[in-house]
Every structure is written in structure tokens, then in C-alpha cells.
Write a structure and sequence with these properties.
205 residues, alpha/beta, 6-stranded parallel sheet, 6 helices, 6 strands, globular
Amino acid sequence: MEFHVSMEPYVEHAEKNDSEVRYLMVPGIGGSGAGHWQSRWQADHLSRADRIAPLSWDEPRLDDWLDAIDRSMTTDTVIVAHSLGCLAVARWLQSERAKERLPLGAFLVAAPDRAAPTFPAAAATFTAVVAPLPVPAVVIGSVNDPYCTPAVAAELAAGWGARLVDVGPQGHLNEASGIQDWSEGRRLLTAFVAGCRRRAQRDES
């Protein structure tokens, strides 16, 4: 499977108005600081955005993060996850408690390789269950992410049944990457949400 996958099927039908969609931010370990694109989007660009609130940001426990996702989920939601948050989202979506409140989709950025030497020891309870997700999903990856190689990103996307998008050499797609507001990511999100909404409308008709 090639690492670069076109988003054109979504971009063609992208909509600018996101007022009917709720966004749930699921950051990585430590949460996302004020300069992280997730925080910037939540503050400045997304009209309806919330963030999970686990008790274990710095020494993450998977059960705590799953509970935090569960408390925050509604069916009009698009999940926007980064790094370790991607693994938590995948686990929650594959759990029994997700079945009655499946979101519109999952936008998964810089998912880490659980087996990589760079994976944080503090997150030992986080494992990647590589099985098809029950909602539309896209995995956004960077070719020089220190936490995940392109090959593993492709494996995760294929296992989750997700589209895979390569945004080039941008590190871990965090503050250290220097992407600031990450306008490219917002365009990808807009396109992805348009595709999710079109699918939801077809399912209802």
C-alpha cells in the first residue's frame, strides 16, 4: 500500500460551514499546549469543539482516557486525535460502549508506532488494536515522524480501514514541527468532514 493517498474524493465536495458538526479533540500525552494546532483550531476555527479531560495526561492510563472519550462522545461528532490519542480513539471505537454513540468519523494525525523505541514508557497501557474501525477514518502521516515510520503508518491505516494521507516531512505534526496553525490540516479536515456528512446523509435516506 502506498503511503500517499489522494483526498480528492472528499475535497471535491468540501463544505466551509461546520456549524452542524461537533469536534472532539483527543490530544497526545501531556495534552496539547496553547501553540499546538489542536488548541489553535479549538480556540479560533471550530465553532463547536470540546476536548477530553482525563486525569492522567502526563502518566496516561488507557482506561482513564477511554472513560474520558466515553463521557464526551455524541453522534454528531468528528474526532480530531493526535499521537497517543489516535490509539485511544481506535480502542474506544472498537469497544462495546461505542456501539450506541458512534461519531461521524475519526481524523487521526501522527498515530505512533507502539513497538518503536521512541514510544513513551509512561504509556505502556496503550496498545494498538489493528482492526477495521466502524466509522469513516483518515490517518494523516509525515514521512519523517520520529514516532512512526511510513510503513507502520500504512499498516495502521490499512488495518483500521482508513484513508492514508502523506503530508511530507513535517516531523510529529506538533508544535516542534513549526506548523503553527497547520492550515493544510484544516483543509484536509474540512474535506474529510464533508465526506462524512455526505455518507451520513446517504445512510439516513
